[in-house]
Specification:
192 residues, elongated, homodimer, 2 domains, Tetracycline Repressor, domain 2
């Protein structure tokens, strides 16, 4: 009989992150994660499909929040600005989890398998953005390009944010990265 | 004793593509691929580390060719134009393999595992571009953005190229996608 486990998913995520950081991702088993969290393997698999998914617990929530925020961007925003509007909105999601994000980032960098899963999540984010942009009336080819570019901004702003010694907000890094993208794509100019 | 197997890698790739298309990726074993190619499993694993890698036979070659082409772009090209220069150059790599690319694309779309591997190859391509752009004297943050944007162009141009009923060249699709990116990123403008 399953008993009620308060915040089982959160405890499993914390235990997994600790163990992956201490022993390495490859060397850790689901049984060990469950034991560390004071739960059973069965409880683990009620929450997560595999050993990787535990580190991507927030990704569905994030994807839905981003899609909803882009949906709410003013109707006259360009496709890319609508995506930027959404990215700024979800900034607090990251800002509130800085310490966790740093540890998680280091663990993911350590394992090709985890990197693969992260890239799949990123790809799903692109697809979700394409869908919401098309609902905003953006033509498919433009929506694809704006979603790809928007997720590049998302990703690079995240990398800058995580390395920022001044701990400025994620939204600020989005603005800076978007400005850099605009500078990069202006008509051909020499750089040397 | 290993005997000489003419174009073993190419035969294995063809056999794998045929079997993945006929029976599905999940349902096919390495033993079956080797048998179809008239080779042994041992020969398979001399060429490819796993069941996925056989479909990414050309990716190292492609990555090296792209890096070399970007390296050769005129010194006064902007970072993004240097990448575009490289992408146009490698266009023949795709144009010469249209039928193969179409079948391969369909097989990859059919399997999340193959999509994961493709995303990893794409990520490796971004890293290779960052490296070559930095060698050209581009600052790291700009190199990262130009590489990400360049690979978005690479990827979207590929999607357009593969679906083009007129079978125009890959280089033409690169030019069009790059022009769309420039239009997308000009200063904010209403779209409706």
């Amino acid at each position: 009989m399953a008993r009620w486990e308060p915040d089982a998913a959160g405890r499993l995520r914390q235990a997994a992150l600790d163990l992956y950081a201490e022993r390495g991702y490859e060397e850790t088993t689901v049984a060990e994660i469950a034991a560390r969290a004071g739960l059973t393997e069965r409880t683990y698999f009620r929450h997560f499909a595999d050993k990787r998914e535990v580190l991507f617990h927030g990704s569905t929530e994030l994807q839905e929040a981003l899609a909803a925020a882009v949906e709410e961007a003013p109707a006259d925003e360009s496709p890319l600005d609508a995506v930027a509007f959404g990215l700024r909105r979800i900034g607090t999601f990251f800002d509130e989890r800085r310490a966790f994000s740093l540890r998680r980032h280091a663990v993911i960098r350590s394992s090709p398998e985890l990197q693969e899963r992260e890239l799949m999540k990123r790809d799903a984010l692109v697809a979700a953005l394409v869908e919401v942009l098309e609902r905003r009336g953006v033509a498919p080819a433009t929506a694809a390009l704006a979603a790809e570019s928007g997720i590049s901004v998302f990703h690079l702003a995240y990398a800058r944010w995580i390395e920022d010694p001044d701990e400025r907000s994620y939204a600020e890094h989005v603005d800076e990265t978007l400005a850099s993208l605009r500078a990069l794509t202006v008509s051909p100019a020499p750089t040397g």
